[in-house]
Amino acid sequence: MHVKRLTLTDFRNYRDAELDLSEGVTVFVGPNGQGKTNLVESLGYLATLGSHRTSVDSAMIRAGADSAVVRAALRHVDRELLVEVQLNRGAANRAQVNRSAVRTRELPRYFSSILFAPEDLALVRGEPSTRRRFIDELLVQRSPRLAGVQADYARIVTQRNSLLKSARAQRIKESQLSTLEIWNERLVELGSELIDRREALVGELAGPLRVAYQAVAGVDQHPRITQRLSIHGAVGDDDEPDAGGGAAFRDARFPGSAGNGQGESAVSAPSTSEQFRAALAGVRRKELERGITLVGPHRDDLLFELNELPAKGYASHGESWSFALALRLASAQLLRAESVIGDPVLVLDDVFAELDAARRRALASAIGDFEQVLITAAVLEDVPQELGARLVKIRAGEVASE
């Protein structure tokens, strides 16, 4: 799949913009602050229903405007599709496919994209929320239905937190909180599905991640991802991984996994929902004291390892970048392997400026055979010449020349 035409109305600093695109590599070049990232951010929103720069949709609406529109004409083989999203201030967003209204959360069914950005270093070195966002966005791209599950789970957490805060303020006894059990069941139902889906995805990423890491780093340092689960006590009350939790959760297994290595079948292990309920019971008093939900996928983390050591804290700057790039490349390979709509569109937002010459060449080689690659760069010389790109100059929210 590739984007044939991108049209923006009141998006970021673009009042009106229309750009024809083609297969292969396109580089948007221009000084910083002119709108290069805004262009590719709009495509990222169509694919993931979010931005890599902000968590607030209204921030993408041009100052003084009530709404912004992103419209993309897509082509896959001989089929063409028009997808559109309207971001509204103070109202629900709206979406269309071929001029027919659809639910916004259905957009990832029609378009997929993988974004590489300088912010990706935070995947390795940053907060747990960054890693949760990474895995959840990839989940939605592979199974758009999960956008609804994620939204419903977040709503349950909010409502449950309100009940806990109210109980704390009114000093309601634990034995009088029968309403909490109703929220608990829904929390466990939705949360267990997200935990299991994340675990399955982590397993599928293992092979592509190792191949991608070796491609960009030139060595095999045994990159590995495992979940750190709050229902196992691997994440503390401050939403940070427990310092001593590494060995305890590293070999945790779920139904459908390889077992515990000691002959015990996966069938006999407690289900995720059973473990979730037990964890909730164990933190009940603490939740009432603090007024927040302390366990569940909203507090989990991912552990990234190189040579059996945590990448966060042990990996060098170059190794951290290699891991971040490998995560994106592995994600792209997964989407490519299973997609019925063709390759995901690869977007590299000023990422070459962050890399040394060797990693630039390695990344260029790894992405060169994707159907469409869009790159932003303030300095054209940062982009490896072997990519053979078409150039588009951007100036002050306008396409200055091609």
Automatic annotation (TrEMBL):
Q: Where is this region: Disordered?
A: 234-271
Keywords (alphabetical) are:
ATP-binding, Cytoplasm, DNA damage, DNA repair, DNA replication, DNA-binding, Nucleotide-binding, SOS response
* Protein purpose: The RecF protein is involved in DNA metabolism; it is required for DNA replication and normal SOS inducibility. RecF binds preferentially to single-stranded, linear DNA. It also seems to bind ATP.
Q: Which PROSITE patterns match?
A: RECF_1, RECF_2
Q: What is the similarity comment for this entry?
A: Belongs to the RecF family.
Q: Which SUPFAM superfamilies match?
A: P-loop containing nucleoside triphosphate hydrolases
Domain RecF/RecN/SMC N-terminal residues, every copy:
3-378
Record-linked InterPro entries:
DNA-binding_RecF, DNA-binding_RecF_CS, P-loop_NTPase, RecF/RecN/SMC_N, RecF_2
So which domain of life are we looking at?
Bacteria
Provenance organism: Gryllotalpicola daejeonensis
Encoding gene per record:
recF
What is the protein's given name? Answer: DNA replication and repair protein RecF
Subcellular locations according to the entry: Cytoplasm
Binding of ATP occurs at G30, P31, N32, G33, Q34, G35, K36, T37
